Amino acid sequence: GTLASTAAHRPQTPRTHARDRAATPTTMSWFRGGGAAAPQEKSQMQAAVLEMEMMTDLFNKMSAVCKAKCITSTREAELNVGEMSCIDRCVGKYLEAHQKVGEVLKKVEEDVKKQQEAQATIAQSLS
User: Fold this and answer.
1) 86 contacts: CB under 8 Å, gap ≥ 6
2) What one-character-per-residue DSSP string does 13-32 give?
3) Which helix (H) or strand (E) holds 118?
4) Left, alpha or beta for 27 (phi > 0: left; psi -120 to 50: alpha)?
5) Which of 47, 60, 76, 94 has the most Cβ atoms closer than 10 angstroms to its Cβ?
6) Residues with Cβ < 8 Å from 49, sequence gap 6 or more?
7) Euclidean distance between CA atoms 93 and 58, whole angstroms
């Protein structure tokens, strides 16, 4: 199970978008054995599905980038020491960059929320 062989043998599944799933009128509840899910459970399930899709996308992109950068030959079944070292560094850097981007986006989101709250407070005080 190398990174290259894992990506090569992964079955391709059709991608669905959140907007397609949102149109589904009822969702099976995993917590109560079936039936329509409560709105909060449905929202949590949609968030979990979205997170899984994002993690799958991250893995697929990281695999493709690191494979293109580090795997020089596919003649041998196993990675050589140089390729393993390169893959290890590449994955580490990719995940670190992903984490830093996430932190920056979270801060920007918090700043926008604060700005919107301040604008709402000003609008209330003027009316």
Assistant:
1) 66, 69, 70
2) -----HHHHHT-S--B-TTT
3) helix 81-126
4) beta
5) 94
6) 18, 21
7) 13
How many whole angstroms from its chain centre is CA 56?
Answer: 6
Residue 77 near residue 61 (C-beta atoms within 8 A): no
Among 80, 101, 90, 99, residue whose Cα is nearest residue 2: 80
- Locate tokens 């978008």: which residue? 17
Per-residue pLDDT of the chain (127 residues; tens, 9 = 90+): 444 444 444 444 444 444 444 444 444 444 555 555 677 888 889 999 999 999 999 999 999 999 999 998 888 889 999 999 999 999 999 999 999 999 999 999 999 999 999 999 999 998 7
Q: Quick one: tokens of 94?
A: 């990719």
Residue type present at position 34:
G
pTM of the model: 0.55
CB 50 within 8 A of CB 58: no
